[in-house]
Protein backbone atom coordinates (compact mmCIF):
# COMPACT_ATOMS: atom_id res chain seq x y z
CA UNK A 1 0.00 0.00 0.00
CA UNK A 2 3.03 2.28 0.48
CA UNK A 3 5.56 1.60 -2.31
CA UNK A 4 9.23 1.59 -1.30
CA UNK A 5 10.29 3.76 -4.25
CA UNK A 6 8.24 6.77 -3.09
CA UNK A 7 8.73 9.47 -0.44
CA UNK A 8 5.90 10.61 1.84
CA UNK A 9 4.71 13.76 3.65
CA UNK A 10 2.85 14.32 6.92
CA UNK A 11 -0.03 15.64 4.82
CA UNK A 12 -0.42 12.15 3.33
CA UNK A 13 0.99 12.88 -0.08
CA UNK A 14 3.50 10.78 -1.98
CA UNK A 15 6.44 12.11 -3.98
CA UNK A 16 8.17 10.23 -6.78
CA UNK A 17 11.59 11.61 -7.64
CA UNK A 18 12.38 11.53 -11.37
CA UNK A 19 15.66 13.42 -11.96
CA UNK A 20 15.09 17.10 -11.16
CA UNK A 21 11.32 16.64 -11.29
CA UNK A 22 8.86 15.12 -8.83
CA UNK A 23 5.46 13.58 -9.38
CA UNK A 24 2.97 14.08 -6.54
CA UNK A 25 -0.26 12.43 -5.48
CA UNK A 26 -2.13 11.42 -2.33
CA UNK A 27 -1.46 8.19 -0.45
CA UNK A 28 -3.58 5.09 -0.15
CA UNK A 29 -4.37 6.17 3.41
CA UNK A 30 -5.49 9.65 2.31
CA UNK A 31 -7.88 8.39 -0.37
CA UNK A 32 -9.23 5.75 2.00
CA UNK A 33 -9.85 8.31 4.75
CA UNK A 34 -11.56 10.69 2.30
CA UNK A 35 -13.79 8.05 0.74
CA UNK A 36 -15.12 8.37 -2.81
CA UNK A 37 -13.28 11.28 -4.45
CA UNK A 38 -15.69 13.32 -6.57
CA UNK A 39 -13.79 16.52 -7.33
CA UNK A 40 -10.20 17.67 -7.73
CA UNK A 41 -8.94 21.19 -8.30
CA UNK A 42 -5.41 21.53 -9.71
CA UNK A 43 -3.11 24.48 -10.45
CA UNK A 44 -1.97 25.43 -13.95
CA UNK A 45 1.30 24.56 -15.62
CA UNK A 46 4.00 27.14 -14.79
CA UNK A 47 2.36 28.11 -11.45
CA UNK A 48 4.97 28.28 -8.70
CA UNK A 49 4.61 27.14 -5.12
CA UNK A 50 6.63 27.27 -1.92
CA UNK A 51 6.94 24.11 0.14
CA UNK A 52 3.87 23.85 2.39
CA UNK A 53 1.71 26.09 0.20
CA UNK A 54 -1.69 24.81 -0.94
CA UNK A 55 -1.67 23.90 -4.64
CA UNK A 56 -5.16 22.44 -4.95
CA UNK A 57 -8.04 20.65 -3.30
CA UNK A 58 -9.47 17.17 -3.29
CA UNK A 59 -13.08 16.59 -2.31
CA UNK A 60 -14.97 13.43 -1.50
CA UNK A 61 -18.72 13.13 -1.07
CA UNK A 62 -18.34 14.22 2.56
CA UNK A 63 -15.04 16.05 2.92
CA UNK A 64 -12.85 18.79 1.49
CA UNK A 65 -9.10 18.59 1.87
CA UNK A 66 -6.27 20.88 0.77
CA UNK A 67 -3.22 19.58 -1.08
CA UNK A 68 0.14 21.08 -0.09
CA UNK A 69 3.28 21.35 -2.18
CA UNK A 70 5.77 18.99 -0.50
CA UNK A 71 8.69 20.97 -1.92
CA UNK A 72 9.15 24.35 -3.61
CA UNK A 73 9.02 24.47 -7.37
CA UNK A 74 7.21 25.10 -10.64
CA UNK A 75 4.37 23.00 -12.08
CA UNK A 76 5.46 21.20 -15.25
CA UNK A 77 2.39 18.99 -15.77
CA UNK A 78 -1.01 18.26 -14.25
CA UNK A 79 -3.08 15.09 -14.51
CA UNK A 80 -6.12 16.26 -16.46
CA UNK A 81 -7.60 12.75 -16.33
CA UNK A 82 -8.49 13.14 -12.65
CA UNK A 83 -10.42 16.36 -13.34
CA UNK A 84 -12.91 14.37 -15.42
CA UNK A 85 -12.53 11.04 -13.62
CA UNK A 86 -11.75 11.84 -9.98
CA UNK A 87 -12.49 8.20 -9.04
CA UNK A 88 -9.00 7.37 -10.41
CA UNK A 89 -7.63 8.84 -7.17
CA UNK A 90 -9.34 5.98 -5.30
CA UNK A 91 -8.77 3.18 -7.76
CA UNK A 92 -5.15 3.99 -8.59
CA UNK A 93 -3.66 6.46 -6.10
CA UNK A 94 -0.03 5.87 -7.13
CA UNK A 95 -0.41 5.57 -10.92
CA UNK A 96 -3.40 6.87 -12.89
CA UNK A 97 -4.46 8.98 -9.92
CA UNK A 98 -1.35 11.21 -9.72
CA UNK A 99 -1.97 14.97 -9.26
CA UNK A 100 0.92 17.15 -10.45
CA UNK A 101 4.51 17.14 -11.67
CA UNK A 102 6.93 19.82 -10.42
CA UNK A 103 10.41 21.02 -11.17
CA UNK A 104 12.20 21.15 -7.83
CA UNK A 105 13.87 24.44 -6.86
CA UNK A 106 15.85 23.18 -3.89
CA UNK A 107 16.57 19.45 -3.90
CA UNK A 108 17.64 19.54 -0.23
CA UNK A 109 13.95 19.87 0.67
CA UNK A 110 13.52 16.30 -0.54
CA UNK A 111 15.66 15.05 2.34
CA UNK A 112 12.97 16.03 4.82
CA UNK A 113 10.42 13.61 3.36
CA UNK A 114 9.69 10.22 4.93
CA UNK A 115 10.40 6.86 3.37
CA UNK A 116 7.77 4.12 3.24
CA UNK A 117 8.70 2.61 6.59
CA UNK A 118 8.78 5.97 8.35
CA UNK A 119 5.44 6.94 6.87
CA UNK A 120 3.80 3.72 8.02
CA UNK A 121 5.16 4.34 11.52
CA UNK A 122 3.78 7.88 11.31
CA UNK A 123 0.36 6.49 10.37
CA UNK A 124 0.39 4.13 13.35
CA UNK A 125 1.20 7.01 15.69
CA UNK A 126 -1.53 9.17 14.17
CA UNK A 127 -4.23 6.52 14.61
CA UNK B 1 -17.66 11.17 26.78
CA UNK B 2 -18.27 7.57 25.81
CA UNK B 3 -20.19 7.17 22.60
CA UNK B 4 -23.51 5.38 22.75
CA UNK B 5 -23.74 2.17 20.74
CA UNK B 6 -26.68 0.56 19.00
CA UNK B 7 -27.23 -3.20 19.42
CA UNK B 8 -25.76 -3.66 15.92
CA UNK B 9 -22.44 -1.95 16.72
CA UNK B 10 -20.32 -5.13 16.61
CA UNK B 11 -22.02 -6.30 13.42
CA UNK B 12 -21.14 -3.01 11.68
CA UNK B 13 -17.50 -3.42 12.65
CA UNK B 14 -17.46 -7.02 11.42
CA UNK B 15 -18.89 -5.79 8.10
CA UNK B 16 -15.93 -3.41 7.81
CA UNK B 17 -17.83 -0.17 8.44
CA UNK B 18 -16.08 3.11 9.12
CA UNK B 19 -17.53 4.33 12.39
CA UNK B 20 -18.03 7.99 13.30
CA UNK B 21 -19.46 10.07 16.14
CA UNK B 22 -22.95 11.14 15.11
CA UNK B 23 -24.76 13.12 17.79
CA UNK B 24 -23.06 11.14 20.55
CA UNK B 25 -23.60 7.78 18.86
CA UNK B 26 -20.93 5.60 17.29
CA UNK B 27 -22.53 4.96 13.89
CA UNK B 28 -21.43 3.49 10.54
CA UNK B 29 -20.77 6.28 8.00
CA UNK B 30 -19.99 3.83 5.20
CA UNK B 31 -19.22 0.17 4.51
CA UNK B 32 -18.00 -0.17 0.91
CA UNK B 33 -18.29 3.46 -0.16
CA UNK B 34 -20.92 6.18 -0.17
CA UNK B 35 -21.50 6.19 -3.94
CA UNK B 36 -21.84 2.41 -4.25
CA UNK B 37 -24.22 2.31 -1.28
CA UNK B 38 -26.20 5.28 -2.61
CA UNK B 39 -26.64 3.67 -6.03
CA UNK B 40 -27.52 0.34 -4.41
CA UNK B 41 -30.51 1.96 -2.68
CA UNK B 42 -31.66 3.75 -5.86
CA UNK B 43 -31.40 0.59 -7.98
CA UNK B 44 -32.05 -2.33 -5.58
CA UNK B 45 -32.22 -2.06 -1.79
CA UNK B 46 -30.18 -0.99 1.20
CA UNK B 47 -30.40 -1.69 4.93
CA UNK B 48 -29.75 1.06 7.49
CA UNK B 49 -29.28 0.87 11.24
CA UNK B 50 -31.29 3.77 12.61
CA UNK B 51 -31.56 2.51 16.17
CA UNK B 52 -30.20 5.85 17.37
CA UNK B 53 -33.51 7.58 16.53
CA UNK B 54 -35.66 8.61 19.49
CA UNK B 55 -39.04 7.04 20.24
CA UNK B 56 -41.28 9.04 22.56
CA UNK B 57 -44.79 7.87 23.43
CA UNK B 58 -47.68 10.11 24.40
CA UNK B 59 -50.59 8.14 25.80
CA UNK B 60 -53.82 8.66 27.71
CA UNK B 61 -57.24 10.32 27.32
CA UNK B 62 -55.65 13.74 26.79
CA UNK B 63 -53.04 12.57 24.29
CA UNK B 64 -54.70 13.81 21.09
CA UNK B 65 -55.07 17.31 22.48
CA UNK B 66 -51.54 17.22 23.89
CA UNK B 67 -49.92 16.12 20.61
CA UNK B 68 -51.98 18.60 18.58
CA UNK B 69 -50.66 21.41 20.75
CA UNK B 70 -47.10 20.36 19.84
CA UNK B 71 -47.19 19.74 16.09
CA UNK B 72 -47.84 21.79 12.94
CA UNK B 73 -50.22 19.38 11.18
CA UNK B 74 -53.89 18.75 11.95
CA UNK B 75 -53.81 15.38 13.69
CA UNK B 76 -57.57 15.18 14.19
CA UNK B 77 -57.71 13.46 10.79
CA UNK B 78 -55.11 10.87 11.73
CA UNK B 79 -56.62 7.42 12.36
CA UNK B 80 -54.90 4.43 14.01
CA UNK B 81 -52.57 2.84 11.46
CA UNK B 82 -51.60 6.16 9.86
CA UNK B 83 -48.50 8.29 10.16
CA UNK B 84 -47.88 11.96 9.59
CA UNK B 85 -44.64 13.85 8.94
CA UNK B 86 -44.64 17.07 10.94
CA UNK B 87 -42.62 19.55 13.00
CA UNK B 88 -42.67 20.93 16.54
CA UNK B 89 -42.15 24.70 16.73
CA UNK B 90 -41.15 27.22 19.36
CA UNK B 91 -43.56 30.10 20.03
CA UNK B 92 -41.47 32.31 17.66
CA UNK B 93 -41.96 29.81 14.80
CA UNK B 94 -38.46 28.29 14.75
CA UNK B 95 -38.31 24.51 14.73
CA UNK B 96 -37.67 22.30 17.79
CA UNK B 97 -37.43 19.20 15.60
CA UNK B 98 -39.06 17.43 12.69
CA UNK B 99 -40.64 14.08 13.39
CA UNK B 100 -43.05 11.32 12.44
CA UNK B 101 -46.25 10.93 14.46
CA UNK B 102 -47.64 7.39 14.46
CA UNK B 103 -51.24 7.06 15.60
CA UNK B 104 -51.11 3.79 17.49
CA UNK B 105 -54.57 3.73 19.05
CA UNK B 106 -57.29 6.30 19.67
CA UNK B 107 -55.39 7.60 22.72
CA UNK B 108 -51.83 6.61 21.94
CA UNK B 109 -49.16 8.23 19.77
CA UNK B 110 -45.57 7.33 18.94
CA UNK B 111 -43.33 10.29 18.12
CA UNK B 112 -40.12 9.39 16.26
CA UNK B 113 -37.55 12.16 16.59
CA UNK B 114 -33.95 12.86 15.59
CA UNK B 115 -31.30 11.17 17.71
CA UNK B 116 -29.30 14.33 18.33
CA UNK B 117 -32.43 16.18 19.50
CA UNK B 118 -34.01 13.42 21.54
CA UNK B 119 -33.25 14.71 25.04
CA UNK B 120 -34.21 18.26 24.09
CA UNK B 121 -37.43 16.99 22.49
CA UNK B 122 -38.35 14.83 25.47
CA UNK B 123 -37.96 17.82 27.82
CA UNK B 124 -39.92 20.05 25.43
CA UNK B 125 -42.76 17.55 25.13
CA UNK B 126 -42.97 16.94 28.88
CA UNK B 127 -42.97 20.69 29.59
CA UNK B 128 -45.76 21.36 27.14
CA UNK B 129 -48.03 18.40 27.72
CA UNK B 130 -50.74 19.22 30.21
CA UNK B 131 -53.83 17.31 31.17
CA UNK B 132 -54.32 13.61 31.11
CA UNK B 133 -51.43 12.39 28.97
CA UNK B 134 -48.37 10.40 29.89
CA UNK B 135 -45.04 10.98 28.12
CA UNK B 136 -42.52 8.14 28.02
CA UNK B 137 -39.10 7.96 26.38
CA UNK B 138 -38.77 4.41 25.05
CA UNK B 139 -35.71 5.08 22.87
CA UNK B 140 -33.48 2.69 24.81
CA UNK B 141 -36.06 -0.09 24.54
CA UNK B 142 -36.49 0.36 20.79
CA UNK B 143 -34.19 -0.64 17.95
CA UNK B 144 -34.86 0.38 14.36
CA UNK B 145 -33.65 -0.62 10.92
CA UNK B 146 -34.75 0.84 7.59
CA UNK B 147 -34.97 -1.22 4.40
CA UNK B 148 -35.08 1.18 1.46
CA UNK B 149 -35.10 0.85 -2.31
CA UNK B 150 -37.30 -0.51 -5.10
CA UNK B 151 -36.74 -4.18 -4.11
CA UNK B 152 -37.59 -3.62 -0.41
CA UNK B 153 -41.10 -5.04 -0.56
CA UNK B 154 -40.00 -8.17 -2.41
CA UNK B 155 -37.22 -8.84 0.12
CA UNK B 156 -39.22 -8.15 3.27
CA UNK B 157 -42.23 -10.12 1.98
CA UNK B 158 -40.16 -13.32 2.14
CA UNK B 159 -39.86 -12.84 5.90
CA UNK B 160 -43.50 -12.25 6.85
CA UNK B 161 -47.07 -13.41 6.20
CA UNK B 162 -48.51 -9.90 6.31
CA UNK B 163 -49.29 -8.78 2.77
CA UNK B 164 -46.99 -5.80 2.39
CA UNK B 165 -48.39 -4.83 -1.02
CA UNK B 166 -51.54 -3.75 0.80
CA UNK B 167 -49.64 -1.30 2.98
CA UNK B 168 -49.90 2.28 1.74
CA UNK B 169 -47.25 4.97 2.05
CA UNK B 170 -47.19 6.49 5.55
CA UNK B 171 -49.09 3.61 7.19
CA UNK B 172 -47.91 1.11 9.82
CA UNK B 173 -48.79 -2.42 10.96
CA UNK B 174 -47.71 -4.93 13.58
CA UNK B 175 -45.74 -7.49 11.62
CA UNK B 176 -44.08 -10.70 12.80
CA UNK B 177 -40.60 -11.10 11.35
CA UNK B 178 -38.97 -14.45 12.06
CA UNK B 179 -40.93 -14.79 15.29
CA UNK B 180 -40.33 -11.25 16.53
CA UNK B 181 -43.13 -8.71 16.90
CA UNK B 182 -42.20 -5.56 14.97
CA UNK B 183 -43.82 -2.27 14.14
CA UNK B 184 -43.36 -1.87 10.40
CA UNK B 185 -44.15 1.34 8.55
CA UNK B 186 -43.97 2.20 4.87
CA UNK B 187 -41.80 5.26 5.40
CA UNK B 188 -38.24 6.33 4.85
CA UNK B 189 -35.64 9.02 4.35
CA UNK B 190 -34.20 8.20 0.95
CA UNK B 191 -36.78 9.19 -1.65
CA UNK B 192 -37.34 5.50 -2.44
CA UNK B 193 -40.06 3.05 -1.48
CA UNK B 194 -39.22 1.18 1.69
CA UNK B 195 -39.95 0.21 5.24
CA UNK B 196 -38.87 1.21 8.72
CA UNK B 197 -38.88 -1.64 11.19
CA UNK B 198 -39.04 -1.02 14.96
CA UNK B 199 -38.34 -3.91 17.30
CA UNK B 200 -36.97 -5.03 20.64
CA UNK B 201 -33.18 -4.42 20.83
CA UNK B 202 -32.75 -8.15 21.51
CA UNK B 203 -34.32 -9.07 18.17
CA UNK B 204 -32.63 -6.54 15.91
CA UNK B 205 -29.42 -8.47 15.15
CA UNK B 206 -31.41 -11.44 13.91
CA UNK B 207 -33.70 -9.25 11.81
CA UNK B 208 -30.70 -7.38 10.33
CA UNK B 209 -28.92 -10.62 9.43
CA UNK B 210 -32.09 -12.27 8.05
CA UNK B 211 -32.79 -9.32 5.74
CA UNK B 212 -29.22 -9.29 4.42
CA UNK B 213 -29.28 -13.06 3.90
CA UNK B 214 -32.72 -13.08 2.27
CA UNK B 215 -31.91 -10.14 0.00
CA UNK B 216 -28.56 -11.62 -1.01
CA UNK B 217 -27.08 -9.67 -3.92
CA UNK B 218 -30.06 -7.32 -3.97
CA UNK B 219 -29.41 -5.68 -0.60
CA UNK B 220 -26.38 -4.16 1.11
CA UNK B 221 -25.78 -2.39 4.41
CA UNK B 222 -25.78 1.39 3.99
CA UNK B 223 -24.20 3.97 6.27
CA UNK B 224 -25.09 7.50 7.30
CA UNK B 225 -23.03 8.98 4.45
CA UNK B 226 -25.35 7.64 1.77
CA UNK B 227 -28.38 8.25 3.98
CA UNK B 228 -27.51 11.94 3.78
CA UNK B 229 -26.91 12.06 0.00
CA UNK B 230 -30.11 10.06 -0.62
CA UNK B 231 -32.32 12.30 1.50
CA UNK B 232 -30.64 15.37 0.07
CA UNK B 233 -31.35 14.45 -3.57
CA UNK B 234 -34.98 13.92 -2.59
CA UNK B 235 -34.91 17.35 -0.85
CA UNK B 236 -35.95 15.88 2.49
CA UNK B 237 -34.83 18.28 5.24
CA UNK B 238 -32.18 17.52 7.84
CA UNK B 239 -32.44 19.24 11.20
CA UNK B 240 -29.44 21.49 11.79
CA UNK B 241 -29.27 22.21 8.04
CA UNK B 242 -32.63 22.98 6.38
CA UNK B 243 -34.40 23.27 9.74
CA UNK B 244 -33.34 24.84 13.01
CA UNK B 245 -34.43 27.02 15.87
CA UNK B 246 -33.77 29.99 13.55
CA UNK B 247 -35.57 28.69 10.45
CA UNK B 248 -39.36 28.39 10.27
CA UNK B 249 -41.15 25.57 8.40
CA UNK B 250 -42.40 28.19 5.92
CA UNK B 251 -38.86 29.33 5.15
CA UNK B 252 -37.82 25.71 4.75
CA UNK B 253 -40.53 25.27 2.11
CA UNK B 254 -42.53 22.88 4.28
CA UNK B 255 -45.77 24.87 4.34
CA UNK B 256 -47.58 21.74 3.15
CA UNK B 257 -47.00 20.31 6.64
CA UNK B 258 -48.23 23.42 8.46
CA UNK B 259 -52.00 23.67 8.97
CA UNK B 260 -52.72 27.25 9.96
CA UNK B 261 -56.51 26.98 9.71
CA UNK B 262 -56.86 24.01 12.06
CA UNK B 263 -56.50 23.65 15.83
CA UNK B 264 -53.96 25.71 17.74
CA UNK B 265 -50.37 24.58 18.19
CA UNK B 266 -47.27 26.21 19.66
CA UNK B 267 -45.82 28.64 17.12
CA UNK B 268 -49.01 28.97 15.07
CA UNK B 269 -49.47 32.70 15.71
CA UNK B 270 -45.91 33.49 14.67
CA UNK B 271 -46.29 31.43 11.50
CA UNK B 272 -49.60 33.13 10.61
CA UNK B 273 -47.91 36.49 11.08
CA UNK B 274 -44.94 35.45 8.95
CA UNK B 275 -47.23 34.24 6.19
CA UNK B 276 -49.24 37.46 6.21
CA UNK B 277 -46.20 39.71 6.20
CA UNK B 278 -44.42 37.60 3.59
CA UNK B 279 -41.86 34.90 4.27
CA UNK B 280 -38.46 36.69 4.25
CA UNK B 281 -36.32 33.75 3.16
CA UNK B 282 -36.88 30.69 1.02
CA UNK B 283 -35.08 27.40 0.63
CA UNK B 284 -34.12 26.87 -2.99
CA UNK B 285 -32.45 24.07 -4.90
CA UNK B 286 -29.56 24.95 -7.17
CA UNK B 287 -27.04 23.28 -9.42
CA UNK B 288 -23.53 24.50 -10.13
CA UNK B 289 -22.84 25.96 -13.57
CA UNK B 290 -19.11 26.17 -12.86
CA UNK B 291 -16.72 23.68 -11.30
CA UNK B 292 -16.78 23.30 -7.54
CA UNK B 293 -18.82 21.56 -4.88
CA UNK B 294 -21.06 23.67 -2.66
CA UNK B 295 -20.90 22.82 1.05
CA UNK B 296 -23.03 23.74 4.06
CA UNK B 297 -22.58 27.37 5.20
CA UNK B 298 -20.93 28.60 1.99
CA UNK B 299 -22.26 32.09 1.26
CA UNK B 300 -24.65 32.78 -1.62
CA UNK B 301 -24.45 35.97 -3.70
CA UNK B 302 -26.49 37.80 -6.31
CA UNK B 303 -23.96 40.08 -7.91
CA UNK B 304 -22.16 41.76 -5.00
CA UNK B 305 -24.99 41.26 -2.51
CA UNK B 306 -24.83 38.42 -0.02
CA UNK B 307 -28.32 36.88 -0.12
CA UNK B 308 -28.04 33.74 2.01
CA UNK B 309 -26.11 30.54 2.64
CA UNK B 310 -25.95 26.90 1.57
CA UNK B 311 -27.80 24.55 3.96
CA UNK B 312 -26.65 21.31 2.30
CA UNK B 313 -24.39 20.83 -0.71
CA UNK B 314 -22.77 17.83 -2.29
CA UNK B 315 -21.86 15.98 -5.39
CA UNK B 316 -25.01 14.09 -6.40
CA UNK B 317 -24.26 10.43 -7.07
CA UNK B 318 -27.52 9.95 -9.00
CA UNK B 319 -27.25 13.06 -11.20
CA UNK B 320 -23.46 13.20 -11.39
CA UNK B 321 -23.59 16.96 -10.74
CA UNK B 322 -22.76 19.33 -7.92
CA UNK B 323 -25.99 20.49 -6.29
CA UNK B 324 -27.17 22.27 -3.19
CA UNK B 325 -29.98 23.67 -1.10
CA UNK B 326 -29.70 27.26 0.06
CA UNK B 327 -31.69 29.56 2.31
CA UNK B 328 -31.83 32.91 0.51
CA UNK B 329 -33.80 36.18 0.50
CA UNK B 330 -37.20 35.45 -1.03
CA UNK B 331 -36.97 38.14 -3.71
CA UNK B 332 -34.13 36.22 -5.38
CA UNK B 333 -35.79 32.81 -5.27
CA UNK B 334 -37.01 32.60 -8.88
CA UNK B 335 -36.40 29.39 -10.78
CA UNK B 336 -33.71 29.56 -13.49
CA UNK B 337 -32.19 32.72 -12.04
CA UNK B 338 -28.43 32.77 -11.69
CA UNK B 339 -26.72 33.07 -8.31
CA UNK B 340 -23.13 32.62 -7.16
CA UNK B 341 -21.76 30.38 -4.44
CA UNK B 342 -18.60 31.43 -2.68
CA UNK B 343 -16.48 28.27 -2.84
CA UNK B 344 -13.50 28.89 -0.55
CA UNK B 345 -13.27 32.53 -1.53
CA UNK B 346 -14.09 32.18 -5.23
CA UNK B 347 -17.54 33.00 -6.58
CA UNK B 348 -18.83 30.17 -8.74
CA UNK B 349 -21.95 30.45 -10.88
CA UNK B 350 -25.03 28.38 -10.05
CA UNK B 351 -28.64 28.24 -11.22
CA UNK B 352 -31.83 27.87 -9.19
CA UNK B 353 -33.72 24.72 -10.22
CA UNK B 354 -36.97 22.96 -9.22
CA UNK B 355 -37.22 20.78 -6.13
CA UNK B 356 -36.68 17.91 -5.67
CA UNK B 357 -33.51 16.98 -7.53
CA UNK B 358 -34.70 13.40 -7.61
CA UNK B 359 -38.07 11.67 -7.36
CA UNK B 360 -38.71 8.02 -7.99
CA UNK B 361 -40.75 6.96 -11.00
Topology:
The complex is a heterodimer of chains A (127) and B (361).
Chain A: E1 7-8, E2 13-18, E3 21-26, H1 28-34, E4 37-41, E5 48-49, E6 54-60, E7 64-68, E8 73-78, H2 81-84, H3 88-91, E9 100-104, H4 116-126
Chain B: H1 9-14, E1 18-22, E2 25-30, H2 34-43, E3 45-49, E4 54-59, H3 63-70, E5 83-89, E6 95-105, E7 108-113, H4 118-128, E8 134-137, E9 143-148, H5 152-157, E10 172-177, E11 180-185, E12 194-199, H6 204-215, E13 219-221, H7 224-233, H8 268-277, E14 281-288, E15 299-302, E16 305-316, E17 321-329, E18 338-343, E19 346-353
Parallel strand pairs in B: 3-13
Antiparallel strand pairs in B: 1-2, 3-9, 4-7, 4-8, 5-6, 6-7, 9-12, 10-11, 11-12, 14-17, 14-19, 15-16, 15-18, 16-17, 18-19
Helix pairs in contact in B: 2-7
**Helix/strand/pairing class of chain B, anyone?**
alpha+beta
Main beta sheet strand tally, sense and closure of chain B:
6 strands, mixed
**First-residue to last-residue Cα separation of chain B:** 44 Å
CATH superfamily of chain A: RNA polymerase II/Efflux pump adaptor protein, barrel-sandwich hybrid domain
Class derived from helix and strand content of chain A: alpha+beta
Which key phrases capture this entry?
heterodimer, A: alpha+beta, OB fold (Dihydrolipoamide Acetyltransferase, E2P), six-stranded antiparallel sheet, 20% helix, B: 361 residues, alpha+beta, Gyrase A, domain 2, Alpha-Beta Plaits, Elongation Factor Tu (Ef-tu), domain 3, six-stranded mixed sheet, six-stranded antiparallel β-barrel, 8 helices, 19 strands
Amino acid sequence: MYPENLKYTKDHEWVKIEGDKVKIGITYHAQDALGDVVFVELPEVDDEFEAGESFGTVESVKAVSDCYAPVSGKITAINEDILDSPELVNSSPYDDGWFIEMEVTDSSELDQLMNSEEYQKYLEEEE
Amino acid sequence: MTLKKTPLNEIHKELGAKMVDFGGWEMPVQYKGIIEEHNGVREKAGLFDVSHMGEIWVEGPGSTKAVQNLVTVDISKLVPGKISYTMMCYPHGGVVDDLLVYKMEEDSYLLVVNASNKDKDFDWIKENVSGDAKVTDKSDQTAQVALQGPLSEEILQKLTDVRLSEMGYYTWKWVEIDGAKCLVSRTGYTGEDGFEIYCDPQDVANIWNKILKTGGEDVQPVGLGARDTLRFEACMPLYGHELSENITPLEAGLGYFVHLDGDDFIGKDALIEQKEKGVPRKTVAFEMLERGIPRANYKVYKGEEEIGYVTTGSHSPTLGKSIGLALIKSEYAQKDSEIAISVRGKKRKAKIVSKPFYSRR
